[in-house]
Amino acid sequence: MITIRTIEEMQKRMIEYRQNGKTIGFVPTMGYLHEGHVALLQEARKANDIVVLSIFVNPLQFGPNEDFDRYPRDFARDEKIAKEAGVDVLFYPDVKEMYPHEPSVIVTVKERVDVLCGKSRPGHFDGVATVVTKLFNIVMPHRAYFGMKDAQQVAVIDGLIRDFHFPIELIAVPTVREADGLAKSSRNVYLSEQERKEAPVLYASLQKAKALIEKGERNVETIRQAIITEISTKTSGTIDYVDIYSYPDLKPLDKLAGNIIIAIAVRFTNARLIDNIVMNVK
Predict the structure, then answer these.
(1) Of residues 37, 101, 124, 165, which has the active-site annotation?
(2) Subunit structure, briefly (predicted)?
(3) What whole-number distance in Å separates Cα of residue 157 and Cα of residue 273?
(4) Binding residue per annotation — 31?
(5) CA 6 – CA 113 distance, rounded (Å)
(6) Are the CB atoms for 5 and 97 separated by under 8 Å?
(7) Domain positions in the chain
(8) Residue 195 marked ligand-binding
(9) With DSSP H G I counted as helix, E B as strand and the rest as coil, what are the percentages for the chain, rounded to 5?
(10) Residue 98 assigned to a binding site
(11) Active-site residue 101, yes or no?
(12) Does 194 show up as a binding residue in the annotation?
């Protein structure tokens, strides 16, 4: 595995790979790697000649009161995990490399962002789309791998690839979970011991909603209230949202039908956890 820190060197190497007929699979991350990231790398390893991992904590996607400085970073640990996962190229630029000056152009996302996490984080997905656009142009991958835990992000990247005509295949990889159902996340380390015991209720509430739908329930509000009751009675967390939309368009539904997402966000003392399930309702 080689580590590259400059855009110039990265582009030069990627062009060489492509000229030699190599396929490139790309996993963009903000580091502090866990099994969810490893699952993305394993999927990339199966289908590509070259696997590229980027680690960059992107300041553009953090709001003024969010945890950019507190976001966990441990490059030595990440490097070891990347090597073990079969990464060929680790792209590790610093902020000055990615943003040498105030950007004169940024990507503004118009659809799929005024709901779920985007509703309370204005500008967040503009930051995501801007850095992903930059990374796509630097890495020039054939396939890009994103985890469905951040399903809204996957929907935004789907729109970005479609609207900007990137010749890239988007691969959405299922959420990786702990044995008790909790979605793997870099922010899980911020949960207290008691909160960690309560956190699996989030996924359990989504499973309860899925079971109701499979039994024939089609009323959106009935499903929402079942989840809200489960979380509010069995955890100390504060619910940010419990929402159901079409997927990936993220449009409101009067009645459950077609491809849908049931998504939740819950705030604990020092961590905000998100989770979702996507299912097809006939």
Answers:
(1) 37
(2) Homodimer.
(3) 21
(4) yes
(5) 31
(6) yes
(7) 2-173, 186-281
(8) no
(9) 45, 20, 35
(10) no
(11) no
(12) no
Q: Bin 165: left if φ > 0, else alpha if -120 < ψ < 50, else beta.
A: left
Fold of 2-173: Rossmann fold (3.40.50)
Looking up tokens 């580091």 gives: 31
Task: Look at the block and give the residue holding tokens 């903000």.
Answer: 30
Please report, for residues 150, 165, 213, 278, the alpha-carbon distance to residue 158 in angstroms, rounded to integers and kept in the order given: 12, 11, 27, 15
The reply, when asked if residue 80 is annotated as ligand binding, is no
The answer to whether 255 is a known ligand-binding residue is: no
Note down pLDDT in tens along the chain; length 282 residues: 999 999 999 999 999 999 999 999 999 999 989 999 999 999 999 999 999 999 999 998 988 777 788 787 999 999 999 999 999 999 999 999 999 999 999 999 999 999 999 998 899 999 999 999 999 999 999 999 999 999 999 999 999 999 999 999 999 999 999 999 999 887 898 999 999 999 999 999 999 999 999 999 999 999 999 999 999 999 999 999 999 999 999 999 988 999 999 999 999 999 999 999 999 999
State which amino acid sits at residue 136: F
Does domain 186-281 correspond to CATH entry 3.40.50.11810?
no
pTM as predicted? 0.92
